[in-house]
């Protein structure tokens, strides 16, 4: 993609307004927290404190709207504490420009590194930089700084208290994540009716697993409906794929295929019903047609072999899903001491989430892992720290006043990747232009008092919370108007506010965009590394499954499960990198977008085949498979060499592994599931080798883009 195309795509993405589900009650609760804080400060007769304290409630409210599985009150309090600390430190250094610039650069660097912990931590870090820039413009003493910091923390405390006192749809995030996973599997079952090898994106299952990880206190209060269906959803998916696959499941044509299609359709109906029940906390309602389809026909089973086993397993799992979900939704199941001791590793136990203090070593390990020059997060932290310092100095030098708006605009739009930074920059400026124009016009026509200005500011906060997920340009407009009304409480002239905000926001946005052009962290050169990591993770998953066939007595389901989770994580990392690379104005670096998509499809097929094989794992008393043992022994060194070959742009060679499979195929007269799945696995590896061959990997000039900037 060329620079002009990349910038056009980024601008279009930033200005896009999406239709999404609105949450007016939650928006009312969040804006009420801001209103309470502003109202109390105005009641005490100090408009300046009202402006300062409002930012604490405002920022704490924003974080509670993010997609996090942490309890919302905990998020509000944690963010409020960080905001209070950053405010106090900023006040201590504000009187000395050099000291404040050094503090700002260091604090912004740490905030940029917070993206290594997670997106919510990254957003919280950005908010702490913003409040350091804004509130320190209000002169005060050290004691006054403590008062400001306490008021900012009080704003977060108010938000947390409102969440506890006025809960809106408790467990809603967890319910939605689990329901989305079940609905995705329902859609998968229906697609398998037409395409027996349809692809499935495991992202909903990953989100559901994240949502099911709870603290011990949450585990004692979690509704029964959220206990079992996720594990069942994990087990249903391979059974669906196994039933539909024409090689190890029902034949491609004939009565067996018709029966398989009926079962898949009924499974989709049942899974949709279970998803609806989980999402809305209601009992399951099933149509009688689906129930009739899931019964064994009066003429006897129509499926044979592995397909029949998959069908019986599917019917049993669907029955369990309905039974678990149809329990009383208000009942709770306590966490036993045994389950706590297992730490989420035992059958039916909880996935326990560490408390906030125990997250400190986890966060430190994440920061240490990203503290390297090649890390895009580390480069983002350096970039945003330099831009914040330069923007503050430039804004202070310009004759506008409120110079902090330039670095504030930069910090708020900058993200670790190119596309988000540029799209948010365009959205920020356009939204600010609209917001300050509308708010400035109202200020000019109405000349509102401080109480009316406060009311208009709260209305803007409510609109921002309500429309937060529709697009960054919309929220930027609401925030811009909010700031104009908020500064109006303190007596700032609206004419100066509008002019300053537009010019300095443009300056800050240009600084952010220029910084990424001069000091990028391109994802495109890393594509081969990500692809190799996905191949190696898939290989470990396949080896864990084949080892179970080779030694059934030593069966270790936990090892297979962990290998599957690693493969999913590697696939998610690849897809994230590929999505970023598609929007970057750089060369393909030896892997064109066409080759990347073909390789991705091949590795997805490899994972699907392994998953199907996992659905038919032998019992512990089954006979060991010598063919599976030989195949696994040959697969291990071949995959090790293949990972290096992908990174070094060398050809992939599976001939030795193919020879081992041919001997296994000749010796296995029963043609079991394992030998047939191994054949499909080899086909997927052949597709990968073809996708990464020099002719395919080189691509064509149309997909090359331009020469990348400095690394």
From TrEMBL:
Keywords assigned by UniProt, alphabetized: Membrane, Transmembrane, Transmembrane helix
Region Disordered: start-end pairs: 329-350
Basic and acidic residues composition-biased segments: 336-350
Bilayer topology term: Multi-pass membrane protein
Ranges that cross the membrane: 22-43, 49-65, 74-92, 98-117, 124-143, 381-405, 425-444, 474-490, 502-522
Domain Integral membrane bound transporter: 392-514
One Pfam family from the record: FUSC_2
Cellular localisation: Membrane
InterPro entries: Memb_transporter_dom (IPR049453)
Keyword Transmembrane helix: yes
Superkingdom assignment: Bacteria
Record's protein name: FUSC family protein
